[in-house]
Amino acid sequence: MKRNISLIMIIIAAAALVFACNNKKDEASTSKTVSPASVEEKTIHIGVSQFVQHPALDAVYKGIVDGMTSLGYDNIEYDYQNSNADPNTAMQIASLFNSKKKDMVVGIATTNSQALKSGTHDIPVIYAAITDPVSAGLVESLDKGDPGITGTSYNNPFKEQIEFLTSFHDVKVLGQVYTGGEANALFQAKQVEKACAELGIKYIGTSIASSAEVKSATESIINRVDAIYVTNDNTVVSALGGLVDTAIAHKIPVLSADTSSAKDNPVFIAWGFDWYYIGQQTAVLMDKVLKGEKPEDMPTTVISDPSHMNMMLNKVVADEIGIEFPEEVLKQAKTVITE
Q1: pLDDT of residue 41
Q2: In-domain check, residue 199
Q3: R_g (Cα) of the chain, nearest Å
Q4: Tens digits of per-residue pLDDT, 231-250?
Q5: How many CB atoms lie within 10 A of CB 117?
Q6: Is the CB of residue 203 less than 8 Å from the CB of residue 248?
Q7: Are strands 227-230 and 173-179 parallel, antiparallel or unpaired?
Q8: DSSP percent split of the chain into helix, strand, coil, nearest 5
Q9: 8 Å CB contact between 310 and 156
């Protein structure tokens, strides 16, 4: 078992290295010192449109603001708007930013980034934390931006995350609740289904249209699965409490790709990228555009280095559902919740 778990971690690291070399989309460095002298000392008006309020997306926004401050900016006025998971509101926010002629607009999550691309004109658009910008129609290729738009993405190791859980818990059927009308969520659901097929695991997915349906959707599959996987699906994550409560009541482990939300919700395993860091990397792109670089000449910054992933294990949940973490698993976690 130790060899299996160690092998999984080695595979993840190797895969990330190959991905980075093949795609040549190295993460930008936030360590450089930037003088604001090259940016005109006037108030810079930046509109930020966030899909919904939950810890992961909030961390992206904080990373953006802190990142811009660390890059030397003290003259930015942020107009932060939250669409509350409503696509129509996202379009209204885009229209508002367009009428106010913002110097730059930032979309946190797919729906809002899509709205900014279609609803603003002659304003640079930066998307943040998008799983697959190409399938979302934001850019034609990760190798370069589209006219007026570029941003950040991440390469989530779906198969390795599932394989990690199966290394110490028997999973014959994996369940997933996902948002059926959101490109980012659909892409991830297909990746999870593909990973299950490769691992010989039966996949049961159920789609929702709003966060109000998360708990009932979970209840509809809970008696047919051995575990539930939660991707970075913003609608599902915003209602994570109902999902994990249902899972715990039925002694079913939940594996989540979002560590930020696991701080406030009793998730068995949370293993994913650092959203604050992704926000910082987004700030690097914003800085370059403000200094004159064209978004269409800038490739998507893809976060893929496993060192920017966090693992959180919840022993309280483990005891409650009757699953024990092996010692070699506990040693790999950045955070272990014991009370």
Answers
A1: 76
A2: yes
A3: 20
A4: 999 999 999 999 999 999 99
A5: 21
A6: no
A7: parallel
A8: 45, 20, 35
A9: no
